[in-house]
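Lab meeting prep.
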Amino acid sequence: MKHIYKSVFLATGLLSLTACSDFLDQSSPSEMNDKVVFNNEYYTELTLNKVYGGLTQDKTYSQFMPIQAGLNTDCELIDGLGSDAQNTTHQRGVFNYNASPGFADLETVWNNMYGVIEDANLVINGVDNSSLIEEGNESRATMLRFRAEAKTLRAMIYLDLIRLFGDVPYKVEISKSDLSNAYLGKTDRDVIMENLIADLEESIPDLPWAGEQTTEHVTRGYAHGLLANIALTRAGWFIRESAKEGYITATKNSDDNYPTQRCDNETRKKMYELAEKHLSTIINSGKHALTSTPEQYWLDMNVGNLQTSTPENLFEIPMGINKSGELGYTVGFRVNGPTPDYGKKGNSTGTLKLTAPYFYSFDRDDTRRDLTCATYQLENKSSYTEAMLGNAPFGIYCGKWDYRKMAGNPTWLEAVLAGDEKAKICSGINVVKMRYAYVLLMYAEVVNELHKTQTAYGTDLDGKNCTLSAYDALLQVHQRAFTDRNAAATKLNQLIADKGFFEAIVQENAWELAGEGVRKFDLIRWNLLSDKIDEFKSTYEAHIGNDDGTGTKWPQKIYFNYKKNSDKAYKEIDQSSITWYETPADTKAYEANKDSFGKIDTKQKDTNLPSISSGLNTPVKNRYLLPLYSRTISTSNGTLKNSYGYN
């Protein structure tokens, strides 16, 4: 049977297919029918591989989801300031919450995501109807694993669609040739999430743990973690198309017409309890652990080392060098133009930026600060050197992905050196959908919320106590980032004493996960997105200008030296020499200086700052959801429409 991979409600592309003479043809000599495909392990796996392959498209997980979709937050910004932030049909304006239904990427994302769902449905339906899953068949376990992988991937995509668009069409069967299930309206996102939870509960026993299967495939740990994340999303705050009876309406950041609500307290408690069980099960399994240091973790990611023994990653979408993956190219440390070490083009890294308040939020001994915040770039202009960015408070690069580390992968380096000045070389760096650090942070949150104390322990699916308390889990993430781990514990305890345990988790979430497409969706479910963006802006304004004598202002100028014995071909900045926190008494002891974040720049303060996330509360409060593309609506046969004040 010839299958339709995009339903009519998804795209106009299928409408054009209806004019083809073979559109309703039930067989084709060039294709095998379902009975042949799904009664053979090899062919079934090939069909599943198509689902994974769909995740490597630019407008699914190669670029859009990991880089753009998670913007903006209090620490992560789209590269769109001033008038650019008002552009409703370009990413620069869209992710400042100024989207319009004319933003063309919306259609591509929608079509591609639903296309992958259609491919997953094909696998699930095929396995369900295969003789190979009968009791006693030697292929049963393998076929059930294929189905479980497809269901988990489908759940992952639906969760991301919900996060982007709110209520969406929910389709879990293959498209029928008579189009009878093509035009679907929206399903309440809560109904969708409850179905996804049920799918994952069914699938988890059929999935292997990491170590038994590579993390480039869905693992049991990821399915547990995804289920927990869906449960927390189900329990959290969401802007609604209309008020839901029995739901709690937020007292802040809520629109009169499109209220921000969450479920009733009883349902919320059940969701947290569900998350606790699945997160505790991951921890108790011992199948995942934190990498020894953040530096080692990001080195492994940049060079493509796939951890096989208690990996930190629960699932990473496999990309291919020079084929897919824009981590390191579209986001990362900037290589500004041609260089002898990294090719004739350099990279872009222009889409995602970090902020000065975020940089200064780190403890000065936290090793994640300089791994995450690249305050300089490599350029080959008047000299081949690392050059400080200067007073760019909203333009710090995210250094987690870094050409200088990627060069440790000879396959990537060969490709980038062979490219010309126009060639974009895809990095092939895998997109991580969940890592163990995030599991620990979610666990700390749910256990503290349920038991009202940070010293409590969760319970796993077998009724066993978790090996970690809420505090232990948070401490693991925090301590790893410091050389002196005893001092790190003292600093965490002080943070908890000053701000409370939950706020410490919110802060650790930023320090650990910025740039990874995670924070925005947590801030949304906590109903903190607007508040934290306001806080970031007020923090910036409070720390610029002349020193007020209290030490609360950032230095207006920084001083630094270059390394004396660097083994690099370029001048390398001695990062330990930069005077980020005080103006030195003897400025002549430094080789170079640069205007920095504390200096008032009228354009940054009066034009750029107000433009950041300018559409979040105008004209509708808390409108972080995207509209449906205009053509998606016009070709839906009247089943879809926009909401939240989008025209």
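Slide two material, second protein:
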Amino acid sequence: MHRPPAPAPLPSTDPADPGPAPRRPSALRGLRVRLTPLLLAGLLAAGCASVVNPVSGRSELTVMSEADEVALGAKEHRQILAQQGVVDDPALAAYVDRVGQRLAAQSHRAQLRWTFTVLDSPEVNAFALPGGYVYVTRGILAVLRDEAELAGVLGHEIGHVTARHGAQRATRQQTAGLGVLAATVFGAAFGLGDVAQQLSSAAAAGVVASYGREQELQADQLGAEYLARNDYAPQRMIDVIAALKRQEQYAAAQARAAGREPASGGNWLASHPSNAQRLDQIRRIADGYPTPDKPVEGRSAYLAAIDGLDFGDSPAQGLVRGRVFVHGGLGIALTAPAGWQLRNTPSTLLAAHPDGQVGLLLRPVPPQAGRDPRALARKLYEPVELHTEARTLHGLDATLVQGRRKLPNGGSQPFELLVVDGPQDKLYLLQQAGAAEAVRREQAALREAAASFRPMSEADRQLARPWKLRAAVLPPGGWARLAADTPLPPGEAEALLRLLNGADPVDGDTRPAPRPGDRVKTVRAD
């Protein structure tokens, strides 16, 4: 949850009208970007033209010229920077840009003005926009092992741009009025169901997920080719896909431990290749390229570049620590009911029941929306009944608002929200969300979560210490010993460190697992 300088108008939370949703690719389903209506209309009005694909050398019909790609990429780039935020680390930004520019200069579209950006997101994600805009998250940097793997991720995304995959999708989908312009390399489902869907950018945009199977495999192939052209071993693309496989295995184990169903391939389109398929195909592809005599690995340079990088949630957006959410900048905290899950976005915190059907939303009220609880309720709903009751919550003035709102079918449904005067003279909404029956069933837990909203205590301030990636030496006691010196949850720490360092080889992995005495990544409380 940001402390935004200029908040947007207060949106609706009607399940039938979710309004503008928070822009975090956080269900880990991949960041999707749609063509804005005016821009799409202009492209369609222009009709299809024939261009030569820079990779295949063949002519293809398109609704997007290169100039259109550049214009669209530049426009969406500004929006992504505003929505996601950029890691404030000039040295890291310069390092990632240097690796990316080297690869792009040896690509099929070296003439583009390429832009490489590190987004301030803990999600394991990378994507590209037409026109030469490539993004990696700090989450993906945490699971990569060295510069060669970073180059593999960047090369894959450069491949999507050089092969004009975004333009191809926009052309094929022109009759539907949609364009999918970005896709993830890595991802795993969190599994929050309907409530999370209300909050996800995918639900708000209503767009189609990631690239198809052939486009992903072509991007893998181009990634291997661009590695080979830049003195990296093309086989390191195998390690990039292996990292995806490890991430999936870790996410599945975490889901089972939490009593959730592991993510299935349904989170991507059925045409998307499975990681097993990609490993098999990229192994054959990579072996077709010559391997440099002294391939660049760049492990020391990579570990130095990411040393001190935020790990997990960003302190600027608040931190989830188990069942507790703390935001040092805003001075607030909230505790979720036992078994519930906390999901933090740049503008909203969601405490969700494990079945994903009901949750509590916490968000700041924009100043322009005013401070009258009854007026706020009218902005959010069309109430046919409205009642308010003054309360005190951990020393804070609060107002309980209850009533009934109109439904499209002519009926009505009860609603309840808590309006709280928080620290720093900021106003907050705590809203119940979900199907009426689920809200009734979980009413006690929803009220428990709302009642936990509080100014930060000393214990909360200790939890609010940010976590950082640090380089360390793997001790003789191995991962268990290293895990004991981290702030990570004891039941997860060792498995997470093994994931971050690629310590569990998977089929096709070309790199040996770290051994005691090797430099590795760990997590420290700052």
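Talking points for slide two:
Confidence is low (pLDDT under 50) at residues 3-41, 175-209, 265-272.
Residues 110 and 305 are 25 Å apart (CA to CA).
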